[in-house]
Amino acid sequence: MFSYRHAFHAGNHADVLKHTVLIAALQHLIEKDAALTVLDTHAGAGLYRLDGDCARTSGEATHGVARLFAPAVPALAPALQSYVELVRAFNHPGDTPRVYPGSPFIVQRLLRAHDRLKLFELHPTDLRSLAGNVAQLEAGRQLAVLHEDGFAGVRKFLPPPARRALVLCDPSYEIKSDYGKVLDFATDALARFATGAYAFWYPIIPRPEAHGLPRRLRTLANQAGRGWLHATLTVKSSRITASADGEVRRPGLPASGMFLINPPFTLKAALQAALPQMVQLLAQDRHAAHTLESSGG
Ligand code: SAM
């Protein structure tokens, strides 16, 4: 069984990017009355304690979401403001967040009663936490938790009845076969349901598969004649350094990206305003930067 636990990483810079994009995309998709199905292939535990052992051990949220709650934060771009407000809704107003909503709770908060949310989680511990957490919501038929491989399990829901869906594909990439699985999944999903909105998160790390994935997703989208958007956020250098006594220092995750196929047309403008602020607020050294590209140029 995998050892990745999102509880160590909840609220880090990668979550800020991923969840800001997720919220902005959803806000657009729920403007239409027709029912929306959201499929979360890798759901995690749903809710995380930022004052618990896992988050405190890693300290990642301190350099992520917590920075957006600092007293001197400037006026935020609308997409970042929506993200902050959504996180604040799970916490005492005015406090630095102690609870962090993962993608299941972020999505559920925004959906209407007639929308549907399917959550896939394989790890037994996170599955138990997720099931316990969502039980409090009393969401009834709106929400289902499935103990299945998300890459395979989602396919049976494509296309959904109202032919409107957002698929979030957010593996841990703990094993390098995940990169290939994402591409296979994207290929199959587009063949089943070409007009769905697909959002893929990936880490930017010194590994050929990680650099190849957005290139391959772009080729896939172009060949299928679908629009795409690619946003990346770097917060620090990826260089491995050594201390004076020769101890090797690995930087931790320096950057990540979101690749969307069939993105809402409003997303690019929302991120054009939000990404420079993410760089400003989340930078850990002078290498902090962002990129934003889309099929429209
Ligand atoms: N999407 C979550 C969020 O934004 O809050 C975080 C998900 S975390 C990066 C990845 C999760 O996928 C982990 O909880 C892991 O146990 C789970 N997982 C790993 N392989 C899986 C698979 N094949 N199918 C479903 N879940 C899987």
What is this entry, summarized?
The protein is of the alpha/beta class and 297 residues long. It has helices at residues 13-29, 53-58, 78-88, 103-110, 124-135, 150-153, 177-192, 208-224, 267-282; strands at 37-40, 47-49, 99-101, 116-120, 143-146, 165-169, 197-204, 228-234, 241-242, 248-249, 255-261, 289-294. It has one domain: Rossmann fold (3-Layer(aba) Sandwich), CATH 3.40.50.150.
Characterise this structure:
The protein is α/β, with parallel strands linked by helices. The chain has a single domain (6-294), classed as Rossmann fold. 36% of the residues lie in helices and 19% in strands. It is built from nine helices and twelve strands. The chain has helices at residues 13-29, 53-58, 78-88, 103-110, 124-135, 150-153, 177-192, 208-224, 267-282, and strands at 37-40, 47-49, 99-101, 116-120, 143-146, 165-169, 197-204, 228-234, 241-242, 248-249, 255-261, 289-294. The strands form three sheets. The chain has an eight-stranded mixed beta sheet, sandwiched between helices. Strands 2-3 form a two-stranded antiparallel sheet. A two-stranded antiparallel ribbon has the order 9-10. The longest helix is centred in the N-terminal third of the chain and has 17 residues, at 13-29. The termini are far apart. The mean pLDDT is 95. The structure holds S-adenosylmethionine. S-adenosylmethionine (SAM) is lined by residues 2, 4, 6, 18, 40, 42-44, 102-103, 120-123, 126, 149-151, 170-172. S-adenosylmethionine binds at residues 2, 4, 6, 18, 40, 42-44, 102-103, 120-123, 126, 149-151, 170-172. Monomer. Belongs to the RlmJ family. The record marks 4 as: Interaction with substrate rRNA. Specifically methylates the adenine in position 2030 of 23S rRNA. This is Ribosomal RNA large subunit methyltransferase J.
